[in-house]
Amino acid sequence: TNPYIIIEDYAFANCDQLTKIIFAKESGAVVKNHAFNYASSLESIENLSSVRSVGDYAFANSTIKEVVTGENVTYGEGVFFKSSLEKVTLGANSTFGLGCFQSCLSLKEVVMPDDGNVHFGITCFAYCASLEIIDLTKVDEKIESQTFYGCKSLKVALLDNVKVIGDYAFARTLISKVDIPATLTTLGSYVFEGNW
Fold first, then answer.
1. How far apart are CA 124 and CA 152, in angstroms?
2. Which DSSP category does 49 fall into?
3. Which residues contact 110 (CB under 8 A, 6 or more apart)?
4. CA 92, CA 111: separation in Å to the nearest integer?
5. pTM over 0.85
6. Mean pLDDT for the chain?
7. Cα(125)–Cα(127) distance, rounded to whole angstroms?
8. Which tens digits make up the pLDDT trace of 63-96?
9. H helices within the chain, ranges in order?
10. Would you tell me which of 2, 17, 68, 87 could form a disulfide with 109, CB atoms 3.0–4.6 Å apart?
C-alpha cells in the first residue's frame, strides 16, 4: 500500500465484513470523514500511530478493542464514537475532537503519554460507562465542557497542573472526592453536578 494514501470520505463505510486494517509502518496516510464508519466487524487497526490525520467519525460504530494513536496528530469529531474500545494509548502533542471517544461503553483504560500536551474536545469521553480512573496531569492545562459527562463508573480524576475545567466536565460521575490543584484558575458551572 502507498504509505501516503488518502482514504476519502465514506470509502469503506458500511463494509460489514471488513475485520482488519493495516497501515504502512512509516505511513503518512490521511483518513478522511466517515471512511470506515459502520464497518461493524472491524476489530483491529495496525500502525494507526503512523497515520498523520484522521477525520470525523472515521472509525465510529466499529468493534475495535484497542488502539495506539500517533504523536502530533489531530483526530476529528467522533472518530471512535460508539465503538467497542476497551483500551486507548494516546500519543503526545495530539488533539482529540468533540466526542472522539463518546459512548465507548467498554472503554476501561486510557494510557496517557509521558510527554503529555494532549487536548480533549467537548464531550470527548462522555458516557464512557466503564471508565473508572483518568490521569489528566498530561493534558494541555484545560478540560473542556462535558468531557467526562455521564461516565457513571468514573471515581478518580487526577488533576495536577490543570488550569481550566469547563462546565459539566465531570457531571453525573461517581467522583466524590477532588483534590483541587493550586494551578486551577477557572472552575466552570455544574462541573460535579449530580455526583453527591
1. 15
2. G
3. 87, 88, 90, 125, 131, 134, 135
4. 11
5. yes
6. 96
7. 6
8. 999 999 999 999 999 999 999 999 999 999 999 9
9. none
10. 87
